[in-house]
Amino acid sequence: MADGTADGAGGRVPLRVIAREWGRIGVLGFGGPPAHILLLRRLCVERRGWIAANEFEDGIAATNLLPGPASTQLAIFTAWRLRGTAGALVGGAAFILPGLVLILLLAALFLAGNPPRWVLGAAAGAGAAVAAVAVQAATTLVPPSLSRSGPGPARVRWAAYLLLGAAAAILTGPWLVLVLLATGAAEIAFRRRGRPGPGPGSAPAGTSPTGDAAQGRPDADPPAPPAPPTPSDPPAPRPLLPLLAPGLAATGGLGALAWVALKVGALSYGGGFVIIPLMQHDAVERYHWMTDGQFLNAVALGQITPGPVVQTVSVVGYAAAGVLGGLLAAAVAFAPSFLFVLFGAAHFDRLRANTSVQDFLTGAGPAVIGAIAGSALPLALALGRPWQYAVLALAALWLLALRRGVVPCLLGAAGLGVLAAAAGFALP
User: Fold this and answer.
1) Bias regions of kind Low complexity — which residues (predicted)?
2) pLDDT for residue 148 is more than 90
3) Residue 260, Cα to own-chain centre: how many angstroms?
């Protein structure tokens, strides 16, 4: 499908339609990436017919290869398919802004200098459930990751990567990303050593992150082999990050906040809860923008508001520098997602067909899962009152045993916190 898809009546999809529809998803998108993907598919594939079903699935697979919030990148990508750069900018902004406005308003309420007691109770209750949410998020990722790894020695390596990711989340804080990169590189080396050279006419190996081999679909074209770089290919942004890091981190204030947000947006393989250990050390221990309890509140707010979970970084920005800090953190965290799509969408087919990329994700994936699960321990240890552990136990029962939804869990935990405050229990 060429850029600038017809809207059924022979014309290009108007930007105002993209703004309205993507904004509606931004308002209604409670429940994280699964809800976002479902709403985008209903709009683009089922209701409007703008994008073919197999192309939409390929878009999911391609955006899952990128670091950062995958569902946000899918929203940007689908808008790009309809109206190019202008569509990507309008659709992405419309998808992000509703949740950003709401989470900043809630941050102002929850992080106020002297909030009402019921607000403190609601925050303490919702924050108490966050560790259980992290474990639930990790468990949902285990089956597809195990299936992707393969049997035998690959399964042993999968377990090792999982444990390394968990240990890194518990012990290393902001250096977690180095462990993710190392596990991905190790898997590339293992698989390259054990893989025979390609025979004449053989297709590149690799499967999509959803676990379906592209060549296994009867309606799919075989993936094209990776082409050599051309002058039109965009330069990889990652080598610039080590050059930016010392200056931004050392400045403190807005410079340090920008660096923390950049790590969240550009280096968080797996998105979602993997951002927690990336942010917690900097926000609480290094720069002292927040207390442990306030950070738990920030994570809870990122879960109960619509839009991407990465919005959590906006609460950290608000705690560091008010509304300006929240807006700056959001702009820096989401900028890589726009850049990855705008400069890389034309190369997504080659990216998915690249064996080394697939091998990297096979190794980094279990480390991400381990990091998400491992983040539950420091989150649980940050709880300050005995009644919060009771709320955590109930949340774990709701999410892990009964397998119910995250948003009702957090809202219910907040309600229990309000009751605890009304009963006179000590608050964090």
Assistant:
1) 202-217
2) no
3) 15
pTM of the model: 0.72
Q: In the structure encoding, which two tokens stand for residue 111, read together? A: 């992080």
117, 147, 285 from 363: Cα distances, Å: 46, 13, 30
Chain centre to alpha carbon of residue 324: 23
Tell me which residue has tokens 């050390």. 281
* Alpha-carbon torsion (343, 347, 352, 355), positive or negative: negative
Could you say which DSSP state residue 397 is in? I
Beta bridge partners of 313: none
CA nearest neighbour of 245 among 264, 262, 229: 262
pLDDT digits (tens, 9 = 90+) for 122-136: 989 988 998 998 898
- Cβ burial 318-329 (10 Å sphere, 16+ → b, else e): bbbbeeebbbbb
DSSP at 221 = P
pLDDT of residue 240: 45
C-alpha 148/C-alpha 346 separation (Å) is 26
Q: Report how far apart the first and last C-alpha atoms of the chain are (Å, whole number).
A: 55
pLDDT in tens, 327-370: 999 999 999 999 999 998 888 878 777 888 889 888 988 988 89
Find, among 90, 78, 148, the residue nearest to 348 by Cα: 78
Phi-psi domain of 168 (left: phi exceeds 0; alpha: psi -120 through 50; beta: other): alpha
Return the ∠ at Cα 30 (arms to 329 and 317), rounded to 5°: 15
For 293-349, the DSSP string reads: HHHHHHHHHHHHSSS-GGGHHHHHHHHHHHHHHHHHHHHHHHHHHHHHHHHHGGGHH
Task: Determine the Cα–Cα distance for residues 160 and 167; give it in Å rounded to an integer.
Answer: 11
343, HSE (Cβ side, Cα atoms, 13 Å): 13
Domain ranges in the chain are: 15-99, 116-195+205-422
* 58 or 5, which is more confident: 58
* Cross-strand bridge partners of residue 6: 12
Residue 389 near residue 383, CB atoms below 8 Å: yes
pLDDT at 215: 36
Q: Backbone dihedral region of 172: left (phi > 0), alpha (psi from -120 to 50 degrees) or beta?
A: alpha
d(CA 263, CA 308): 16
- Give the separation between CA 216 and CA 208, rounded to whole angstroms: 11
